[in-house]
Design brief:
single chain; alpha+beta; Ribosomal Protein S5, domain 2; lpxc deacetylase, domain 1; seven-stranded mixed beta sheet; five-stranded mixed beta sheet; 7 helices; 30% strand
Length: 310
Amino acid sequence: MLQQRTIKSLTRAVGVGVHSGQKVELTLRPAAPDAGFTFRRVDLPQPVDIRVDAQAVCDTRMASTISAGGDPGAPKVQTIEHLMSACAGLGIDNLTIDIAGDEVPILDGSAASFVFLLQSAGIELQNAPKRFIEVLKPVEVREGEGATLKWARLEPYHGYKLSFAIEFNHPAVDATGQQVTFDFGSGDYRRDIARARTFGFTKDVETMRARGLGLGGSMDNVIVVDDYRVLNADGLRYGDEFAKHKILDAIGDLRIGGNLLAAYSAYRSGHALNNRLLRALLADASAYRVVTFDDERRAPAGFAQLAPAW
């Protein structure tokens, strides 16, 4: 049986929210089989539990934000995608996340710190079958046309593969790889994807901060790009780091809905379109089925191996 996974012991992190700028503490705890992911706002007078699912997403401006039932007026947790991406990369199924604030800390701007935290806590197999959402027919969402066109698509695939193309018409970004494909069956998430950082443009800073976004951003946690070049002294971690971070985000956005067996492809997509794609899939009962693998040898390559500790 291909089994569910949680962590062996609790682990903690403290950092700032990239948008709120507020210091916040995060405690990751093991959770029971079939529990899924639950954020617990422990900073509130009465703690509030927010279960992670596609319908819980209540805001997609610059990040994926969830609240109980997707109610935009309810207590929320912002910027969950990097932590969710790390959980997908390590095959974690069940986790309780105590958070003393309304935004997951950005740490170094990638998923690598969350991978380290999870592996430091240890990964434990659970006596319950790992469930997958197997895509049975193509599902696509589109937005805009011509120069403003964006789209994202899921298609049947025995495994999990993601392909992303970016287009920013910016000299610093155009000089890097514009398209990335990553297959969980043959790639190494920790090596190939996890270290790709979020990025931002200096020309957008004033507008973002006027909207209460980007208040915690700095060169310690964001690739900062002016009109011509990357300003970070250490440059890029990958030759195609911009496109790889979009795949990292997509992995996290889609994990909000569950473990997918699918080929995902996208052009200039983002958090909003990724969530629309998930909702379109789950709204069509003929587009998917939930599967488990009693014999893990029948599971797609790459899903049975436990990620080693650091």
